Amino acid sequence: MIKNIIFDLMNVIIKKDSNIKTLMNFTNDANKAEDLQKYIYKTEEWKLLDLGNISHEQAIKEMQRKAPKEYSDLIKEIMNNRCQYFTVNEETVKIAKSLKEKGYHIYVLSNMSEFAYTYFKDIDFFKLCDGIMISAYEHLVKPDEKIFMTLLDRYGLKPEECLFVDDDDTGKTLETANKLGILGRSVKPNDSQDVLNLLGEYNIEF
After folding, report:
1. 65 and 94 assigned to the same domain
2. Where are the beta strands (DSSP E) in the chain?
3. Residue 17 pLDDT exceeds 80
4. Domain count, the chain
5. Residue 138 forms part of a structural domain
6. pLDDT in tens, 107-156
7. What does the pLDDT look like over 56-75, one tens digit per residue?
C-alpha cells in the first residue's frame, strides 16, 4: 500500500523551458544561445553545482574563464537570473495538497543546486512536505543509488510504500528507484495530467 509520494522538483513542481529557450530570454541570437548552452549547462561546473561541490560564485568564475571573453557578462547574468523564468506548476501543487489532505506523506528528492533551491524554498509547496532532500546538500545526485537509500533511511520509509514522480528523460533514475522497490514511472515534463495518470495507475484516489 502506497503511503508516501516522492516528488522531483524541476519539470514536475517547478516548470521550466528547455535550456535553449531559457537562454533566449537573455539573447536574441540563436547561435549565441547554443554557445552559451555549451559554456553553462554542459560544463563540469554545472554538475558540481548539483553535487554541492562548488559554490555558485566559483562556478560562474570557472565558466567565464573557459568561455570566450565576450560571453563573460552574459554568463554571470544568466546564472544569477535564470530562475526568474521558472514558475511553480500550481496544478501539480494542488494535486500534492489533495494527497496530503488524504493522509499521504509528501517528500522531495531532486537534483538541484543550493542557489536554485534557495530561490524557491519559500514556495507553498514545501509546507506540505514531510521531508526534503536536495542533491547539493547531500553531495549525491540521482541516479546514484546512495541518494535513494539516504532518503529511505533518513525518513524511515519502506520502498514498496513509496511512489516516485519524476520526469526522468534518461530512464536511469527510475531504473534505480524501481530496482530498490520504489514504485513509479517517468512522467511527461510539466504535465499535471500525466501525474494524475500515474496516480490512477496505482489506484491512488483523492
Report:
1. no
2. 4-7, 14-15, 87-88, 105-110, 131-134, 162-165
3. yes
4. 2
5. yes
6. 999 999 999 999 999 999 999 999 999 999 999 999 999 999 999 999 99
7. 999 999 999 999 999 999 99
For 147-155, the CB contacts below 8 A with 24+ separation are 147/109, 148/109, 148/176, 148/177, 148/180, 148/182, 149/180, 151/6, 151/107, 151/109, 152/180, 155/107, 155/130, 155/131
Whole-angstrom Cα distance, residue 158 to residue 18?
34
Task: Name the residue range of residue 25's domain.
Answer: 19-85
Residues 6+ apart with CB under 8 A from 77: 26
Nearest residue to 92 via CA among 201, 3, 177, 199: 199
Tell whether the model's pLDDT for residue 206 goes beyond 90.
no
The DSSP-derived string for 57-77 is HHHHHHHHHHS-GGGHHHHHH
Distance CA 170, CA 143 (A): 10
* Among candidate residues 41, 68, 85, the one where a domain is terminated: 85
| Spatial separation of the C-alpha atoms in residues 38 and 199, rounded to whole Å | 37
Residue among 127, 131, 129, 103 at smallest CA distance from 204: 103
- Mean per-residue pLDDT over the chain, rounded: 97
pLDDT in tens, 172-186: 999 999 999 999 999
Prediction pTM value = 0.96
